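Researcher: We're teaching a course module on how sequence relates to structure. For the next exercise, students receive a sequence and then see the predicted structure as tokens, so they can try to spot secondary structure elements on their own. Here is the exercise chain.
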Amino acid sequence: MQSACATFDGVDDYVDLPAPPLDANGTSWTVGCWFKTTDDYWRLIDWRGTGGVGAVRGVQISIYLLYNSFQNTRIDDGLGNYLQFDEVSTDPYVDGKWHHIALAWDSPTGTAYLYLDGILAYSKTNSALANADLTSQPGVWRLGAASNNGSQQFQGSACGFFFYDRLLSASEIAELYNTGFVSGVTPAAYYPCSEGIGSTLYDVSGNNLHATLYNISEPSFWANTQDVFHYNIDKGFSLYTHATDPDLRVPYDLNGQPLSITPPTGYTLASEHPAGDWHNGAETKIQMPAADANLAAGTFWMDSAGTLQARSYNDIVGIWNNEN
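Model: And here is the predicted structure for the students to work with:
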């Protein structure tokens, strides 16, 4: 089971958030995403002030080819105080495979933590950055390129961009890496990047910070799939297969509430359908038109492990009745 992912062309594709997902002025936070690339010079998540000399460089998740490292993944107050991760080699992470990155900031101590594939890669402290003002200058949060001038365009695939307005612990980062969410913690913004069509990235955190894609060619931007499986019919969260029952399952959304699913045009949504009569007994189903055998609408489809056939209803199971 797969869904779409964002694929940046390395030329001019980028995404702008409509508003800051978090306040980085004297507060702790955690940001990151999944990425797949062979490129060695890019920015994935970036906030930088628009001023000239002395501009706050704020928050960057980036790598720099000259140093073969995460040297450009940094926190910088624009006053000569900064942290960067030039000690961490990028070689294992530009291999064309999916990797997870998280940058966590403990503002009271001025300590930054860089996690790669769910494991702490390095931590650094600069006491001059404790409670630093990082994002008060005019600027924009951007995905896939530098926020101040559009340079360092990312070439590769990405998904699951997350913004938490607090420091996540090592165990929470591991949970995020393994499951796609942190139990009991609602992100400030979360972008699965699984739309598969259009020029909007939906924020599924509930805060509605839907982001805008720029300069993309839709067929190429949505051409690839992610190994971190999500669904997005209108907006939604991860799919997984139940360990014993042959059902496709949808867990709670990120704030612990049942998901709200809006089916695409031509599809109807029902619940509590009993087993039999072409159904497998799940609590929630998507009914597809009889002429459509593949359910290719939006970004959700099933492969040969659960092929959708004409006159068949493949049920989506969720925790709709306080049960799995």
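Model: If you want an answer key for the exercise: Residues 170-179 form the longest helix (10 residues). Confidence is low (pLDDT under 50) at residues 229-264, 267-324.
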